[in-house]
Amino acid sequence: MEVEESDILNFNDSIRSIIVKLNHYDVADDLWYHQAAEDFWKGVGKFFYLVKPSETSFERVEEVPNYFNEAWPYFLLFILLENVLLWAERKPIMRINDSITSLSHGLAHECSKLVFKAIESYCYISIYTKFRIMDLPWNNPTTWYLAAISMDFFYYWGHRASHEIHILWAQHQVHHSSEEFNTAVGLRQSVLQGCSFIFYLPMALIIPPSLFITHQHFNLLYQFWIHTKAVKTLGPLEYIFNTPQHHRVHHGSNIWCLDKNYGGVLIIWDRIFGTFASEKNNEEIIYGLVVNRPSFNPLQLQTFYTSYVFQRFSEMKTWKLKLCSLFYGPSWRPGSPRLGLEEEKIKVGPRQKYDIKIPTWCNLYILVHFCVIIYGYHKMSSYYLVLSPFSILLFVVYILSSLTSIGMMFDNHPYACVLEVLRCMLLVTAIQNFEFPALDQTVLTVMEVFFLLSGLFWFLKCTKVIQIIPKEKLK
Ligand SMILES: [Zn+2]
Ligand SMILES: [Zn+2]
């Protein structure tokens, strides 16, 4: 079949109109693509802190763009690029089960931010308003750089506390729970990680709230791309900046990697405070937790360690020991120093990664439903200011239960199909009985049919009309 020249022109026009519409460019301006390219590179630059203070300083908190939310297309682009590099180097690429689990944690963390951000803003602004010790101009580059450095300094201490205090580690371990090390892991965060804002509150004594929020975004964006094995070294930058090489050590469960390289953007804090370790060329890094409890179910990964901490707490005989079990390090035992004895730490050697191979169609099913969940989250987050707290709560419950259902499917859990039937049928009922002003009628009809067919399929599977046999199960 021959492709007409007019077809190609029509295709180019369609792509152009989509880009112009998505970014609100001026259609009449023939140089719109220059603007698009400039915006694209500015978006990439935000991941490397390559931004101009004059373009990222705002007087009021409400004016600060949600840089992190805007970065989702770039996250996907980085993930794609990393896999192309790994594939070109003939190294293993991402596993779909582990990567979607990481992204699920990222999405659950974003939902929790809807609550924690409000508390964080309230506390920070209250301290800044009542107790600040100086008035720094919000539009001065010196204030901007001071905010960037103090954000990274307090990140170091907050991160270090998350590793050295057992009850905080119970949350932060989620970020370390993957046995892989890739950019998707950069998005794997605990739902309760938002509580860590208390470590940044001293900044409120001098740094204006709008700059605090701006640098919180950039500090987090920088930490996304350092989760990769595709970049070996960055040469002299390794002395000053946190890099993929340094962060690989941080994620290792080998004894020499434990409690090392806490830095966010700068590695100098680790060098100053004695927690730095370099990567060893002759030793393979084993990723994942020392006491591994692998699963693809985000709900289980988010909660299992907290119940372990409380089990340890109840086993202690005295109140002093009980408090030590909560506030000392994860390796602490009665009679040992705060962070435990080196010789008592568990030696982790090469181990088989947890993997359950489910059929390709099942992976595709999960992928499509995961995209629908992201679409739902995107709609909810852009409308959440006009939604009632109850509607937001329902939406968050929908997202979390959907992610759990997906995780249980990856785990080939016996009740996964029952949960999926319930989830799909509840969604059909919700579409039929509630109003969704953010979605037009065609989208709602497609969604209704989509969830109805999905629910019907899993109902047939529950009743053993259809069965899924995993290809292979590895432990
Ligand atoms: Zn960590
Ligand atoms: Zn990390």
Order of helices and strands: HHHHHHHHHHHHEHHHHE
What small molecules does this complex bind?
zinc ion
Give Rg in angstroms.
Answer: 24 Å
Number of strands: 2
Structural class: mainly alpha
Overall mean confidence score, pLDDT: 88
Structurally, how many domains make up the residues? 3
Q: DSSP helix count? A: 16
Identify low-pLDDT runs.
none
Shape by Cα distribution: globular
Helicity, as a percent range: 55-70%
- Beta-sheet strand percentage? under 5%
Trace the largest sheet across and list its strands.
1-2
Biggest beta-sheet profile: 2 strands, antiparallel
Distance between the termini: 50 Å
Subcellular location: Endoplasmic reticulum membrane
Cofactor: Fe cation
EC number: 1.14.16.5
Organism: Henosepilachna vigintioctopunctata
Write a short abstract of this structure.
By secondary structure, the chain is mainly alpha-helical. The protein contains 16 helices and two strands.
Keywords:
binds zinc ion; 3 domains; 16 helices; globular
Describe this structure in words.
With 475 residues, the protein is an all-alpha fold. It folds into 3 domains: 5-43, no CATH class; 71-353, no CATH class; 355-474, no CATH class. Helix content is 56%, strand content 1%. It is built from 16 helices and 2 strands. Strands 1-2 form a two-stranded antiparallel ribbon. The protein is globular. The mean pLDDT is 88. Residues 159, 163, 172, 175-176, 250 line the site of one zinc ion (ZN). Residues 159, 163, 172, 175-176, 250 line the site of one zinc ion. The chain crosses the membrane at residues 360-377, 383-401, 443-460. Belongs to the sterol desaturase family. TMEM195 subfamily. Keywords: Endoplasmic reticulum, Iron, Lipid metabolism, Membrane, Oxidoreductase, Transmembrane, Transmembrane helix. GO terms for molecular function: glyceryl-ether monooxygenase activity; iron ion binding.
